[in-house]
Amino acid sequence: MIDIYTHMLPRVEGRKQQFIDAARYLVNQGVKAVATTLDKETNTSLSLYVKEANQTLKDNHIPLTIVEGTEVLASRQFAASYRHQHDILPSHDKYMILTIPTQEEPSYLKDLLYDIQLKEIVPIISEPERHPYFLEHKDGLYKFVKKGAVIQLSSDSIIGKNGKHAKKAAMQFIEHNLAHVIASGASLDNYKQHSLRQAYDVITKEKGAETAQLLMENAEATFNGQGIHMLPPERIKKTKFLGIF
């Protein structure tokens, strides 16, 4: 398995052994590679941390690979800044994970996605099944997918750890081809709760082995900077809305 969204680097002194323990744990779970994602302000030092982390893995004979990814807090303020400062986004990554503040209604997201795609970067909307806006306005997610956005769900949502509403929405998104990648968001603080394998088991049981395999292949393609397989998205009927707001 490949996990495209983690925060696994030992970026403070004294956590090297914890990193080694976490890496071994992930390998035992069946993970062979992870991407660690931080905002652009830390990208310069992140490269060094990634290099050191991979050397540590090699020295300890741990068959795990770490690469750096790109994540931004896709807030209204960020969207406005990008309009006037196009170098705010890096150009070396094919994919960018967008975390949307839960307190914001992302009316600005359509324009931001367009601007990002102009730089030939594929936006990944992270964990919409946990966002109040997308729980109530699933058609909005459908429209973003139609425009080329990739959707990443939390493995914790799939197994029910983020609540019944998040799980129901996540499974609906999968059923209607509105989800493309599963990731854990794991860190050194919670790696023992890593749930990616469990999530794939749930998807296999509830949606079929073919669906689980497609999601795993998409994670690998994303990790390698390749195009993913996106089935034609389907609208979710209003009668299936959660109706919790």
From TrEMBL:
Tagged with keyword Disulfide bond: no
Documented EC number(s): 3.1.3.48
Enzyme class: hydrolase
Name of protein: Tyrosine-protein phosphatase
Source organism (scientific name): Priestia aryabhattai (Bacillus aryabhattai)
Keywords carried by this UniProt record: Hydrolase, Protein phosphatase
GO molecular function, one term: protein tyrosine phosphatase activity
Keyword Hydrolase carried by entry: yes
Family: Belongs to the metallo-dependent hydrolases superfamily. CpsB/CapC family.
Pfam families for this protein: CpsB_CapC (PF19567)
